[in-house]
Design brief:
The chain has 272 residues and is mainly α. Helix content is 82%, strand content 0%. The protein has one domain. It is built from 12 helices and no strands. The chain is elongated and about 95 Å long.
Length: 272
């Protein structure tokens, strides 16, 4: 479980509350202002997106708290094992192993090369799936990126509404009207505060976390594509490992290659 989003939210709320002061929190509560900002932003999002996308909002929130689902080093180890099996027993031997794979994209990719499809055709089909997946992810993250734009906009609308009402009802000839100027102005500005807080504490962090999860899944799936194409081409397993790990940081590559080398040496020693 990834709790960084929750920690960030708690810290943001705590720091803002501390900055305001507990004794002055009441000054920052106005139900009508909240309705304009939150209700307006949600209404604009509903108007912008079909329900087939909006229904996935609970799923998006869960993704923010989900831990690292896509383990590329583990995937590379699996690919190397499959490459060794394919070199020893042929591509048809991978069909039985494919049934043990839980990830549907990985499983279907292996089955496509088992069926002796043309390599160019296989790559084209897999890359088409990657493009479709990226488009779906863009739609999901786009909800929150749009929300981060709508919230400040409705905050400004609420401020303008408050200012107009304040000026409309102000009577400078009456001492009571002048004395209420500061109070009315503060209420008008609360919507701007709500809009900025909603955009930068809620919408933007969710959008960024979804983009990070998207990048992780796309890296995983791209590694699957490169791996299965190399297996179909009969690439040497050790070269395949180095090829697939090239997308990672140099320090991670060295660490994983060293670990694989030690593991291979231990296996050789055991067989001897």
């Amino acid at each position: 479980m990834d709790v960084s989003t929750l920690i960030g939210w708690v810290m943001a709320v705590a720091l803002v509350v501390w900055g305001i002061g507990f004794d002055k929190l009441g000054n920052f509560w106005d139900l009508q202002s909240l309705a304009i900002v939150l209700g307006g932003a949600v209404a604009a999002l509903i108007a912008s997106y079909p329900f087939r996308i909006l229904k996935d909002v609970p799923k998006h929130i869960l993704i923010c708290f989900r831990g690292g689902k896509y383990n590329v080093p583990k995937l590379v180890d699996q690919m190397v094992d499959l490459a060794m099996l394919a070199r020893q027993s042929g591509l048809l031997a991978l069909e039985e192993k494919a049934e043990e794979i839980k990830d549907p994209f990985f499983k279907q990719s292996i089955l496509k090369i088992v069926d002796a499809n043309d390599p160019d055709k296989v790559r084209e089909m897999l890359e088409k799936e990657l493009d479709d997946m990226a488009a779906r992810h863009d739609e999901g993250a786009g909800i929150y990126e749009k929300g981060s734009a709508y919230a400040p906009a409705f905050g400004m609308i609420g401020t303008l509404v408050g200012l107009i009402n304040m000026l409309k009802g102000m009577d400078l000839g009456d001492s009571g009207g002048a004395s209420n100027l500061g109070q009315d102005m503060s209420v008008a500005l609360i919507t701007t505060f709500y809009g900025s807080a909603l955009a930068n504490v809620v919408f933007q962090p969710i959008a960024k976390k979804l983009r990070i999860r998207q990048a992780e899944e796309e890296l995983y799936c791209a590694t699957v594509v490169e791996g299965v194409m190399a297996i179909q081409a009969g690439e040497n397993p050790q070269m395949l490992r180095e090829h697939l790990l090239s997308c990672m940081k140099q320090s991670q590559q060295k660490k994983l290659l060293l670990k694989a080398s030690k593991s291979s040496g231990a296996d050789t020693g055991g067989e001897g």
